[in-house]
Design brief:
mainly alpha, rod-shaped
């Protein structure tokens, strides 16, 4: 019979993994929506220089999501 402490730990890890995966999906959703807005702005005449601060935030969010996804994979 497995230890109740080990069973509780396994449940906590499974829950945390699910939450982290959901957070990754949420962040990537934000990234996609912001990137679509940047692309639309560029198509409507905005310059890359004007949108550089926004693009930098998109890139940072995407990098954060990748780090979180890697953490989920590493701990599953």
């Amino acid at each position: 019979m497995p230890s109740p402490i080990l069973a509780a730990l396994e449940a906590e890890v499974a829950e945390a993994t699910t939450v982290m995966a959901s957070a990754t999906a949420l962040i990537e959703g934000f990234v996609g929506r912001i990137q679509a807005a940047v692309d639309a702005a560029l198509a409507n005449g905005a310059t890359e220089a004007e949108l550089a601060p926004v693009q930098a935030e998109v890139d940072a969010l995407h990098a954060s999501a990748e780090l979180l996804a890697a953490a989920v994979v590493a701990n599953t």
